[in-house]
């Protein structure tokens, strides 16, 4: 019986350690939980020149860290709201289509 009681007492102490009250200043507010405020650790491969460029920019005085700069560029592309296709507007540009057609004709004549 004593062993059982000691085991239960030990379990309740462990439970108390796991579930402590959190100070109000440490509780996340709803605006803190927005996806744009939530950072996630990822592993990804970048081209070396892209990484070096970002690190060089970050080395400048008062510059943001390179990870922040890369994140900002990705956010800018995302918020542009064109599905990441900067050339999608060219498909509907008659001047662009005419210029491409002219280049194709020149290319065919040279062959």
Q: What is the element layout, followed by pairings?
A:
Elements: H1 2-18, H2 48-59, H3 66-79, H4 94-110
Helix pairs in contact: 2-3
What does this entry look like structurally?
With 111 residues, the chain is mainly alpha-helical. Among the domains are: 40-79; 86-111. Helix content is 54%, strand content 0%. The chain is elongated, with a radius of gyration of 29 Å. The mean pLDDT is 83.
In short:
The chain has helices at 2-18, 48-59, 66-79, 94-110. By secondary structure, it is mainly alpha-helical. The model has no long low-confidence stretch (mean pLDDT 83).
Show unreliable segments: none
Strand segment count: 0
The main β sheet shows up as:
none
What Rg, in angstroms, do the CA atoms define?
A: 29 Å
Labels describing this entry:
elongated
